[in-house]
Amino acid sequence: MSLTGPSKSKPSVAIIGGGLCGLGVGWRLAAAGCAVDLFERDKVGKSASWAAAGMLAANVEAESGEEMLLALDLESQRQWPAFATELSAHTGIDLGYRDEGTIVVAIDRDDAEALRFTYDYQKTQGLDIEWMTGGQARRLEPHLSPGVTAAVHSTLDHQVDNRQLVVALEKACRGAGAVIHEDTPVTAVDISGHKVKGVETATGTYRADVVLMAAGAWSYDIDGLPPMARPPVRPLKGQMLGLRMDPRAPIVDHVVWGPGIYIVPRRSGHLILGATVEDKGFDPDMTAGGVFRLLEAAWEALPQIEELPLDEMWVGFRPTSRDDAPILGPTSVEGLVMATGHHRNGILLAPITIDGVSDFILNGILDPALTPFSINRFYDETKSETGIRA
């Protein structure tokens, strides 16, 4: 059913959350003529979207039991080049899109056996990846450790500078006419008769025909939602480090994955190391153990990091659903729409989430790729179609 109907004007929309999903959908809807108010508890783009590494790694991250999610990841990955070109042209901001590819390395025999097992599964899914010896990997990246025994190379797994991405989306969203309310947490969704009426904040109540839940790891805690429309999302803490390379002579060009680590080079010379996975709620603290594990794992794959200056340390909170897959589309409450729970795939899934959710709000038609990821899967297990692990 269309949210607007053929004879009605464009809906007014309240968006809860100013990360890349909220900003991106706000841009699309405002550009289409909707009245959009976006509410962010802090500053837009400064939570999970800012803390991420920007990897677009649908192929090397594919795991058994997540076939439906893999299909969504691959489709969004396919859309990324055109999405990046459009947004960059629209805003004049370079998104730092890089297509050198990704290398996953094994450090010892056990790592190689585990990597081979994963590689064999990924090949059964028809993924375009290549097995390499350690020597072949070092020909691509000469500074990899001599101890690297084997590797997998994916030419299709790229990266984008996620911080530039959110800067561009904010510019596009504001430029299209959306009203952004920073430092304005939504305290409750106003629902009457199983239909949204708007949102409540400390500064007042805002009426809207549609409410989009895009609050990331904070989505569960907003009041006013009935049980079957409350997204089961929790934060998964990730500690990350930023080192500084000479941009004229970087020690690595590809994204490199190793046991317990990923290493992401930026053209600016920034080198990102990430990330721990900790179920500790909204604990904001960096820890000695977390920093040590990141540096040790990165050094084992790329020993030359030892000489690089440490630029930055930060913590992010992945918005993780009960089955590690996103929650997208309509709910049992008329006018309440979800775009949350993306776990580690928020940047990768940006194009398909932004365009798919926007199209649904405007036209009432949900992209079939999004339908398995309805919130309803958590409340009717017998009819779940996700094909992903619980």
The fourth-level CATH homologous superfamily of the largest domain is FAD/NAD(P)-binding domain
Strand content: 25-35%
Tell me the quaternary state.
single chain
List unreliable stretches of 5+ residues: 1-7, 382-390
Question: How far is the N terminus from the C terminus?
Answer: 29 Å
What form results from the Cα inertia axes? globular
The CATH first-level class of the largest domain comes to Alpha Beta
Can you tell me the CATH topology of the largest domain? FAD/NAD(P)-binding domain
User: How much helix, percentage-wise, in residues?
Assistant: 25-40%
Question: How are strands sequenced across the largest beta sheet?
Answer: 5-6-4-14-15-16-13-17
- The assigned CATH architecture of the largest domain is 3-Layer(bba) Sandwich
Structure summary, number of beta strands: 19
Largest sheet: 8 strands, mixed
Question: H/E series, N to C?
Answer: EHEHEHEHEHEEHEEEEEEEEEHEEEH
Q: Return Rg in Å.
A: 21 Å
Q: Mean pLDDT across all residues, rounded?
A: 95
What structural category arises from helix and sheet content? alpha/beta
Q: What number of structural domains do the residues give?
A: 2
Tally of helical runs:
8
SSE blueprint and pairings:
Elements (H helix, E strand, L loop, with lengths): L11 E5 L3 H12 L3 E5 L8 H4 L3 E2 L10 H25 L10 E5 L2 H16 L5 E4 H7 L9 E5 L3 E2 L2 H14 L3 E3 L4 E7 L2 E7 L2 E4 L2 E4 L19 E12 L10 E4 L2 E5 L4 E5 L13 H14 L8 E12 L5 E4 L5 E5 L9 H14 L27
Parallel strand pairs: 1-2, 1-12, 2-8, 4-14, 12-19
Antiparallel strand pairs: 3-7, 4-6, 5-6, 9-10, 10-11, 13-16, 13-17, 14-15, 15-16, 18-19
